[in-house]
Amino acid sequence: MSRVDARDKVRGAALYGSDQVPDGLAHAAFATATIDRGQITEVDTTRASEVPGVRLVLTHIDELRPAGFVMGGGFAVQSFQPLTTDRIAYKGQPIALVVADDPVTATYAASLIGATYVTEPFAVSLDDPGATAVVQEEAIPLPFLKDIKFGDADAAIAGSDVRVEQTYDHPPQNPAPMELLASVVEWRGDTLVVHEGTQNAAAVRNGLAQQLGLDASKIEVISPYLGGAFGQKNSLQNHTGPLAVAARRLGRPVKLVLTRPQTFHSGSFRPQSRHRIKVGADRGGRLTAIVHEADQQTSRHDLFPATFTEVSSRLYGVPAFRGRQRLVQTDVQTPGYMRAPFEHPAAWAVESAVDEISYQLGMDPLELKLANDATHDPVTGLPFSSRHVSECLRRGAEMFGWSRRPARPGSWLDPDGAQIGWGVAIGAYPASMTPAVARVTANADGTFQIDVDGHEMGQGIRSAIALLAAELLEADPALIRVGVGDTRVATQHLTAGSWGTASALPAVRAAVLELRPQLGGTLPVTVTASNGLPEAMVERARTGLVTLAGPVYDSFVTFSYVAHFVEVRVEKGTRRIRVPRVVSVADCGAVASPVTAASQVRGAVTWGLGAALREHLELDSRYGGFVNATLEEYPVSVNADIGQIDVDFIDKPDYQLNPVGVKGLGEVSMVGVAGAVSNAVFHATGRRIRKLPITLADLL
Amino acid sequence: MLPFTYFRPRTLDEAIEALRAGGESTKLLAGGTTLYDMMKIGVEAPAAVVDIHLLRELDHLEVRAGELVIGAGARMSAVSAHPEVRRLFPAVSESLWRSASQQLRNMATIGGNLMQRTRCAYFRGGVPYPCNKRDPGTGCAARDGVDGGMAVLGTSDDCIATYPGDLAVALVAFDAVVDVLGPDGARSLPVAQLRPLPGDTPHVEHVLRPGEVITQVRLPITAVAAKSAYLKIRPRESYAFAFASAAVGLVLAGSPAEAAVIECRIALGGVSTVPWRAAAAEQWLIGRPLTEDAARTAGEIAMRGAEPGRANAFKVELGVHTVAQSLLSLSRSES
Amino acid sequence: MVVPTTFTVNDTHQQLDLDPRESLLDVLRERLRITGPKKGCDQGHCGACTVHLDGQRVLSCLTPAVQVEGRHVTTIEGISGPGGGLHPLQEAFIENDALQCGYCTPGQIMSGIACIAEGNAGTDDDIREYMSGNVCRCGAYPGIVAAIRQCAHRTEAS
Questions:
Q1: How sure is the predictor about C154, in pLDDT bands with cuts at 50, 70 and 90?
Q2: Closest approach of chain C CAs to the CA of B281, in angstroms?
Q3: CA geometry: angle A632, A638, A644, nearest 5 deg
Q4: How far is CA C153 from CA B221, C92, C114, C129, C158, in A?
């Protein structure tokens, strides 16, 4: 079955937040700080206010209360709310909001706003003076953030036949979804209506309620489609509250579309991180222990927690592991959850180190991985509800033709002089579930309406829902309409972390099964059902707070898995790196929607290739902020960069996790790609590059 | 964007008169891909704009009297795809289709492309970055900054901004001339002289006089231009500015085993502040067989004098290889 | 300054008094409520705003709207086939799942139609090169190439 909303999308008929143009619409623009840290002494709005067509200039909004950081028991991308303080916490922070009759006037007037500051020293990268490190488990004493340790890893490594101790540097990166941060906000009577691409309409709603002192029932957040999000739209943005205030004061709907550089400087991003990895093994090829010490950048005002070791402790069945995670406070906007936020850097670092040790052992890296697969969860001792890592590896190896790979690095030359290398790496991602409630209505005309928690950001959640319902109802999928991303029809808990489908589908299934016997009776009939998580969790989710179960459940542990095989070609002379083909095999439980699932994996592989070979936010410690804050300077992959990507699935349902048997897919399929690239570059060239991105400059 | 006056002349003479009357704060608008973009980000703020994008007089392309003549108003995409350009000047065609995207090439004109300003992020970024090109006398943020994309040749203490274009690199390699028309009449100058080195006046980016308009580009038709190619190495495989690029032309003579270079042309882009003709490398190659070693030496000569900063040292080695690889692949395709 | 400007969008006549600063993209989206063309960067770096101007693909974000005087603009809303059905490339995008979030899709399709018409869809490598001005952050590139290849072959065959 093709993607159910594809027809709307190919016609340009799918409406994203900023596509709304209500009557009387006014347009807003931000003026932003040009320093990285300090105190505003004055914002001069005189010239801006005098521009004909300017209706409002806001520099300090008294009535906005704090909404709290989404990972600190609140609702917003960060605890710091611009336009409510004279503090400058990062370069590019909004210092004024201008509202005018049209976009040209608003932008022009915003450019006329001047400010004076008292500047203070600042740090933007891990190595800058003034960047301060805190031990995460001490700074945030929460059970799930405690350092993972089992066995005596250091002693085991010291006593191992072979060992690798290396540091791997991961740069900051930006999700850069095609849709800019943007909202259209309007008051209909005393009800606030927000059109905005968000993965978390519930947090936008409840966060605004808290900010504005409103009852959440007076706020509607409508987000039927996102133009991509990848974690950047996971909570209340900093612009939405100010926009609501502006719309209320003007009595007009207001639209704000942040510019791309503003989106780079306001939106959350993947923070810089550094990984000290130690791996030991015995001569027979058994891994003895792994140590993973990670430093991750955070902001000065929030502790963005890291969970790198949740995955690095579980890639292999090691008897000992020691994790340590530190957060390094810098003067940036609070970083956030960019696709596979911890798992991608963690797996890249560990899979690089494990590859290094395979060469020390003289063992094929694939064999080493197969020999060290885990039989149960090494952290808790619990069984995995499902784990098909070895099968992913075996099937991928066969599809890729791995057996034809020459063992010696730097030995494989194309007739044109290019060096060829093949690399393999695995990935894992926690399978979580969040509360979801589905309301299914059978209409008299034979159509069905399904409203459920979830947001459609390209992963194809509408398709997965329609496909499942169509099968259970024995109905044509075209007769099923799916409502997601709309607080008028469901809570709309955060959709992220690859839990969207695994959370929504069991609720839809439960409701449809309850509805089915009633189809012979009087129509319309409506049934509501949840996905089975405890009612207390459902209640908490209704308040807009993130509410999560897993990956450690009472009697089992659940992760999704993937194996990637990558071919690189390094051109002679110029050392240009190209990736003609990738094979990826994923274990995501049951494949809920085969067409969109395959696209998800290809997209995630594209992300992995970009992260490995191109993407790097450039920090300038003299000025703060990001120097390459445009889609010209921040090189996301283009069509010509991407070759063949072959995808397959294990497709074994995990009925222990939920009755539909689905785990997660969108994130895990990126995890390990960068490791496979790094390992392939080593195999091609004999050069081990322990930082990303790997560019031709590293190989010249 | 600051408000401005918009004027759409019907003839070239009207355009020149409007430019003359408007003075320095009046700018020509053609495809818009540079000027309008820079007006949006506040780097350009003309008081008046003279829109010549539909002036028919400027939109032409023909072969006459041993020359290829390209109107300044011709679109990059049309010139790139033109059969005579592809036949007589493959490097020019390739330099065009490897620039920007097809959408931008459908908009941007040849004359506008020659006047393209640098893409240096500090230049475009505005306040707080000092930039001598944007605000003379303020300094250069790129020096000691994020300089991986910056130039290593033709730099000065005051500016290391890379010349971003591709076409001009090919034009410089093949001795193209621009014809200009202004209040004082017509004149011609080599494309190689259009842009001065930054020196201590990096804000001076061209030698056109007030009111002058580029009307056309003329390229002498030669054997070496017909055997030419353009190699562009960049952060991604398309739609990106060059780390390094080379426009090369090559005529070999003799038996395939001992073919020696009779004529060659080498110009570099992406590594320099202006399109960079490597005449010394060309001369060194004349009479020599094009071995791998010879190609590399030519590349080394071409990159002689490079002064890298913090993160762009790779461009020196990359420039060498870009020249060498483009020469070698051209010689292989010829034999 | 106000510049009276006359043009067509999807064969509908438009007469607007334009500020010369206004981009074609903003005029389409905010004045005419034609929101298929999307804003992904507003500075010529992504291709999401691609429309046809007199049949050629251009970026509407870098086109001052006053420049379309007397010209014909076509957006994704104006390409449906006879009888209002989908354009063959729209069909091919669906068949090859050449999209995910859909935000870049109108620009991809406008670009793809032009790519085929220009004769730049002869090989997969040509398609990749000539479609590289349309960034798809979801990474639907293999599907996009497949859709354009399929549509180009059908166009050739017919």
A1: confident
A2: 31
A3: 160
A4: 37, 11, 14, 18, 9
H helices within chain C, ranges in order? 24-26, 88-95, 105-118, 124-130, 141-157
Q: How far is CA B192 from CA A7, A391, B279, in A?
A: 52, 61, 12
Q: Which two tokens stand for residue C66?
A: 């006053």
- Residue pLDDT, tens place only, A322-335: 999 999 999 999 99
Q: CB C38 to CB A5 under 8 A? A: no
Nearest C-alpha in C relative to B106: C58
Nearest in space to B102 (alpha carbons), one of C114, C109, A178: C114
Interface residue C148 vs chain A (CB under 8 A): no
Q: What digits encode the pLDDT tens for the residues A390-408?
A: 999 999 999 999 999 999 9
User: Distance (Å, rounded) from C-alpha C109 to C-alpha B66?
Assistant: 42
Q: What is the pLDDT of residues B22-36, one digit of tens each?
A: 999 999 999 999 999
CB burial of A466-486 (b: ≥16 within 10 Å; e: otherwise) equals bbbbbebbebebeebebbbbb
Instruction: For tokens 């469901």, name the residue.
Output: A490
Across the range A64-70, mean pLDDT stands at 97
Cβ pair B101:C47 closer than 8 A: yes
Query: Cis before residue A551, ω within 30 degrees of 0?
Result: yes
Answer for the pair B123, B106: CB distance below 8 angstroms, yes or no.
Answer: no
Contact C20 B6 (CB under 8 A): yes
pLDDT digits (tens, 9 = 90+) for A209-221: 999 999 999 999 9
Laid out side by side, the sheet with A254-257 consists of A54-58, A94-100, A26-32, A254-257, A182-188, A191-196, A219-222
Which residue type, as a one-letter code, is found at position A190?
Answer: D
Q: Is residue A549 predicted with pLDDT exceeding 90?
A: yes
pLDDT at residue C81 greater than cutoff 80? no
Give yes or no for C124 touching A (CB within 8 A): no
Q: Which 8-state DSSP code applies to residue B275?
A: -
pLDDT digits (tens, 9 = 90+) for B242-259: 999 999 999 999 877 778
Inter-residue contact A618 to B120 (CB < 8 Å): no
Residue with tokens 């936020």: A341
Question: Would you say B133 and B201 are in contact if contact means Cβ atoms under 8 Å apart?
Answer: no
CB A589 within 8 A of CB A505: no
Torsion of CA B57, B58, B61, B64, to 10 degrees: 70
The pLDDT value given to residue B186: 98
Residue A584 CA to residue A564 CA, distance in Å, equals 5
Q: What is the pLDDT of residues C82-112, one digit of tens each?
A: 777 999 999 999 999 999 999 999 999 999 9
Does residue A320 have a pLDDT over 70? yes
What mean pLDDT is predicted for residues A42-52?
98
Interface size between A and B, measured as CB pairs under 8 A: 85
What is the pLDDT, as a whole number, of residue C158?
A: 66
User: What is the maximum span of chain C, computed from C-alpha positions, in angstroms?
Assistant: 51
Please give the order of strands across the beta sheet that includes A448-452: A480-483, A448-452, A437-442, A525-530
Q: Give, rounded to a whole angstrom, the gap between the first and last alpha carbons of chain B.
A: 55
CA–CA gap between residue A368 and residue A25 (Å, rounded): 62
Burial class (CB in 10 A: 0-12, 13-18, 19+), A330: buried
Subunit contact B32:C67, Cβ cutoff 8 A: yes
Specify whether the CB–CB gap between A109 and A54 falls below 8 A: yes
User: Which pLDDT belongs to residue B255?
Assistant: 78
CA-based nearest distance C122→chain B, Å: 14
Q: Nearest CB to A104: which of C21, C76, C97?
A: C21
Can you spell out the DSSP letters for C38-66?
--S-SSSSS-TTEEEETTEEEEGGGSBGG
- From chain A, the residues in CB contact with B239 under 8 A are 638, 640
Overall average pLDDT of the A121-142 stretch: 97
